[in-house]
Each structure stands twice: as C-alpha cells, then as structure tokens.
Amino acid sequence: MILMYCILTFKKVFIMSKKNDKNIDKNLSPSQRIQSQFQEFVLKNYSDGDKIPTCSSRLNDLLCGGLPRGIVVELYGHEGSGKSSLMLSTISYLLHAEEYKDYMFCYIDTEGGLCSSTFKTRYNIDSERVVILSVSNGEKVFDIIDSLTQEKSCLLIVLDSVATLITNEDLEAENSLGSHSRMMSRRLRRTIGLMNQSKTNTTLVLVNQLRSKIGMGDSWKGEFQYTTTGGKSIKYYSSLRIEIDRNQFIVEKDRRIGFMMNVKIHKSRFSVPYETCLIPVLFEYAISYSMELVDILFEKKYLVKGSPASYIIWDNVDEPLFEIKQKTRYELFLNIKDNVEHINKIKKLLDIK
Fold it and tell me: Which of 229-233, 267-271, 288-292, 323-327 has the lowest mean pLDDT?
C-alpha cells in the first residue's frame, strides 16, 4: 500500500510539472523561464517608492531616500541620546504626509515612560491611525508584531525598547541566564519569516540600548567598550543598524534648549555604511524639520544677517528671497515652523522633496 501511494504521488507531481512547463513560453531564456516559474520568490528591486522617509532630510540622504520597506532596523545608542524622539518624530511626520494617509503605524512602549499628553503636545500625534501599546512581556510583544506584519495597511512598527523586554523564563525560573538572547533569536527568526511570506512591506524598528561589556573596565575606550543588549541575533537579522549619540548642546540666551544628535550608519545593505550626520533636537519640539532647514541654510550660506534684528535668505542668483525680522536662529525657527509658504520656498531652494 505504501509503495502504491508513493507511485501515485510521484505521477501526480510529474503531471503537474508537465502542465506548468506547457504554460511557460519556450522562447524565453533560461533565466526568464526560472523567473516566470518562481515569480513569487524573485528578489525585488528597491525604488524610491519602497523607502519610508524619516523626519530628517539629512538622514534621508544617508539612507538614499529613507528606511527601506519590509526589513528589520536596529536603532541603538546611550540613554538620553534621542532614540525615542527620532522614531516618534518620524511617525508624526508620516502621519501628516499626504502620500501616507491610508497607512497605520504602531508604537510599542515597553519602558512605560510616555503618556498620552506627551504624544499630543510634543510630537503632535493624535490620530486613530497610530496604535500605541504598553507591553513588557517579550512573547506577547512578538505575538502582536507577528499579527501586525500581516496587515497591508501597517507601514511602520517601532519596538521601544528591546532592553526592557521580559521573557517568560524571567518570570518563572530562578536562573534565567541568557533567556533574553534566546527569546530574541527564536522570535526574530519567526517574525522575519512571516514578513517575507506575507510581503506586506512592513518595516520593524528595534530600539536598543548600549551597555558596557563585561570585564572590559576603563582600559577599553570607544565603540569596543560597549555592546547592545539582546545578543548577536539582532545584529544578524537587522538589514540596517543606526547608532545615535548626543553631541554638543544648543544654547539660546544662556539656556540649553536642545542638543545636536550624531547619527552613524553602522550596517546597511541599501546605502553606504559608516556615513554620519548631525540632526538638531529641541527639548520642546523634539526633532523639527524646520529647525534642520534653518541649519542647512546656514551651512550653505543662503542665510545671512541682514541687520542685528533680521535675517535675509538669498537664492542661487544672489538675489534676496525674503527677509525675516528675527534676532536668533531659534526665533527664526519659531517664525517659519508653521509658515507653509516659507518652508516650501526653502525646500525648493535647497532641492529637498
């Protein structure tokens, strides 16, 4: 009986393969025949439409347009370096962009350090299209992520952060050494498989923390002194790894109003690695697109002092574009941040989309 079953199964598979061969054009080249036969497994080409722009034009330039869709991204750095601000500002930017009005976003807060008023006042996030969850159990978090990656309308998932995830072994066993790394390795492998299978092009961002390496002490300096939590599986499964760190403070009238964020691409399969950029972060407004435009205008010498109480923005032919009556850069930012006409003129001048 077993032999007869094997023979019938072989005949069925052989007949089906013959039918598939008949449907394939014989005039095609071998590579074209393989691509037509296994079309669902063919590697896709990334274009500008397959990138998710961030809240920073400088970071978009480093990433050749933004975060690639359908991959895992690791964003890591020291405490207070602006990791959460970068992702929340990006969600806010996408939320108000016209081309992404049909998509939803998910932010999973495992640290429990944010409240609803923070989302509304500082990041301007107040929409039904943003799902904000507060979960700390690692297994439940990845169950949520696995279900969201099957939704075509879900564009971006942010897990903030990996370091505070609790495993079931941590809750049940007395000795749970290595349980966090094992859980991340097991669940990430499953999640990436589901993402590739569903082809929904949902991007998963894992926010991670830096910690000191055990036994290194103060004799080791620089990047060799620190490592990320969660083991090596996150480094392996992430197609893009971004490190951020706090740079010098932004001072306005002897008062610290923000800092410059140093961004470095450590691993990238879609752009040039080890490129860096500086992004201004304001304590009151987080990462502001308008403040970055003001900095770029200064760097490219389009923005000069017209008088002690005004700034003049010049165009490419040495003619004044417009004049703004403000004394400092911060006051200039406050003037143009809600002025759509001025922002559009500046973006056109700088050739920024």
Answer: 323-327
**Residue 150 neighbours by CB under 8 Å, 6+ apart:** 194, 198, 200
- pTM attached to this predicted model: 0.85
**From start to end of the chain, where are the E strands?**
51-52, 67-68, 72-77, 104-109, 130-133, 154-160, 203-212, 226-228, 240-252, 255-268, 276-282, 303-307, 310-314, 320-324
- Are the C-beta atoms of residues 154 and 202 closer than 8 Å to each other? yes
- With a pLDDT cut of 70, the percent of the chain lying above it is 78
What pLDDT, on a 0 to 100 scale, did the predictor assign at position 280? 94
**Residue 40: pLDDT above 70?**
no
Using CA atoms, how far apart are residues 71 and 44, in angstroms rounded to an integer?
13
Q: Beta strand 276-282 with 320-324: parallel, antiparallel or unpaired? A: unpaired
Element counts in the chain: helices (H) and strands (E): 12, 14
DSSP output for 298-324: HHTT-EEEEETTEEEEE-TTS-EEEEE
131 three-class SS: strand
Q: What is the DSSP letter of 223?
A: G
Nearest C-alpha neighbor of 81 from the set 290, 264, 260: 260
- pLDDT higher than threshold 80 for residue 124: yes
Q: φ, ψ for residue 244 (rounded to 5)?
A: -125, 150
pLDDT mean over 85-89: 96
Question: Which residues 6+ apart lie within 8 Å of 284 measured at CB?
Answer: 122, 257
Chain mean pLDDT for the chain: 84
DSSP 346: H
Residue with tokens 């304001």: 282
**What domains can be seen in the chain, in order of their start residue?**
48-287 (3.40.50.300), 296-350 (no CATH)
On whether the CB atoms of residues 244 and 75 are closer than 8 A, the answer is yes
- Residue 190 to residue 178: CA distance in whole angstroms: 19
Burial class (CB in 10 A: 0-12, 13-18, 19+), 140: middle
